[in-house]
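Section: Multi-chain targets

For targets with more than one molecule, the full set of components is provided together so that the structure can be written out for the assembly as a whole rather than chain by chain. Components appear in the order listed by the source. The example entry contains two components.
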Amino acid sequence: MTRESLIERIISLTDPPETEQVALEARLKELDDDRLVAMAEGLERLKTRGQERKRRFGPAVVARVEQDIAQVSAHFQSTLHRFDQMIAPDIFGADEESVPYGLARSKAVHDRPGGMMVGGRDVSRPGYQVHAPATGPRRDWAPRHQIFPGRTIPADVLTDALAQLEYRVRQENPAAFIAVNDEGLDVCKVIADDLNLSVLVDVVDGSARESLTWRSRVTDHRPAVGTAMVVGHFAWSGETLARAAKMTIERLHPKRICILVLACSQDALSRMESLTRALPPSEPLAGFEVPCLAADPDVTFGAHRVSITIEQDGYVFDMPDKSRSKILRTDLEKSRALLATQEHRSSEWRSG
Amino acid sequence: MFELHDHSWELIGLYSDAKAGHPPPDADVAEDLASLLSFRAVEASRYDADQALFHAPDYPGYVSRSLDGLQIYVPFPLARAFPGAQSLRDIVAFAVDIGIGTGAICISGSGAMSGTLHHLGDLDFCEYVFEAGDLMGIAALCDSASPSSRTALAAINCKGTVFIAPWDGIRDALEQLTRTGPPATPATHFLKLDYCAWCTTFGPIPATNRVLWLSRDDPEQGDALNSFAHQEAVIARGGSPVRTLISAERIGAYLVFLEREIAAYKDKNPVKALKRALSFSAVVGIEPWYKDAVRLLNHEAVGRTVRQRRFREFAELASSVAPHARSGPQAALQHAAKMTHYTWDTIEIVPDTVLDEITSLLNHISLTIESWGDYNELSS
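Its structure, encoded as tokens over all components, is:
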């Protein structure tokens, strides 16, 4: 038997997911002939043993075990869902450098946006292997509560808010990630690094300075830009955000753009109002989603998302995800009212 | 519906054999298992955070990497969750600091999975010792006047008796221990050292070194039967893995151990029990459970309960540290409190709800796995 057929045999005996076969084949090729032969023969015999076990267990037991697995999985899902209702999910950034104090995370290698990274394999992108960073992990990340210097924000509030934000980024799975300076940029740097996002553009208050960083290991696998995400802060004007979004569209031609607006000020909601007024209807920006994450009366932190989908014949309104931070949802009613206002406005824009 | 692979059925068979007290089906199964474990190691190679773990062909079931001149061997169930260099360097530094001998010391528990698991409650190590002299080295640790910059010895459990500073009676207890030679049968709480550990990567964290005094003639017997090589990443310190992963009997026993730990801890420490369920699914190859358990363990809701427990334990341990060495752990705690703006025992969470949810899930898992252990008897 040739090496190739031995490797084929081993793959067939182990039946890995299609997405992993290429990587597995490459690894098996590193084994010498003797080991390949021994492995193929041993796996063959073990498969027979397993089949014999199944036969002895009987079809009823086999069906029962597989049903058990499905039922426990369903229980897992319902538990996870209930946890998501309780508190922001924190499923990002399986760390190579752990989590001091549970507040800061560093570069993620496993769970990247798309949510399907398993040990370096991006199972959500068939056939692709995402490589570890060539330049080594980012080492200058800051604990999350230091992202907003000079502001007094309870660490747990900020942690939750950022976890929420990451959750949204992860759900959007953006191919481009654009920061609008200052806190927005700081947040983007941390999150982009956590999630290994492919593009980071700095827009400093709408001025000329900008940079575009392509991470080749990812862009190799992403020939087209799908969603671009712009992250900004309420302190920046809607005009700046709109300019960032426009520049993103011009340079990257994304199919979809999503704007996340951060706020950690007492009057975040009123600023949100200002922002929506500042966005000119002529820009391809319509459809607003406002999952308000207000904290206590003195400190308001919000991750407000303005989301649009660019299509040939108009814009599609995105529904917010349902996860909410227990701590941060005290002002939800207010945000719902605002959302209703924006839906109305968005509808008016669309109808022209 | 998820379909179990034929190889996984054999592993479930070994589990039910072990649970029923049946011997493995035949001696040849070990050779076939070696192929499966080798395959699993090949499959897991370079899936760690650094993509630095490579299949170790001479030690079936292990992947291996080097770090700062040390060779580390990682059993396949831990491989894809193994930490990358930065946190691993800190973990290894802890291991070297708290090791009592110069031979292999292993990273066990969630520290070995900290490449994937975010929330660590503690760092567990186990150390293989073959010489009585190494055990007596513990007395020197107690007498040390110069505190370490990253660890502080808090307590020693020697055959069920707990010693704390000023360590009255520890020397006598160790001398008595060494007179008898390595235990011929597994002994509960044979020798365990509890530490406060701290560093910038992990903050303050309890650490434990479980010492296994083994016989060179048969390192798989005696106290070795109290630990499972499948959950121990070996920092070889010049040697190689002391123990083998290829044993049908031990794999079956490991799965039974995990099932019993799930049942034992599902109420009193459900997060720990959930980690056991994670290990069970990693060994057998139940991928949906593995992914879901990781997601659940990484959930912030779980993270808060883990951190709360962790810092309470650390504070308790710190109170037992000898006065001259207490400043290190106390400063680590103060720094953590400053960094996070709250003290660890006042974290506002909903632990009862969270823990009740996990316990409910674990009841389901426990009953499910337990029922699998009975199928062999029913069908034979």
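Residues 340-350 of chain B have pLDDT under 50 and may be disordered.
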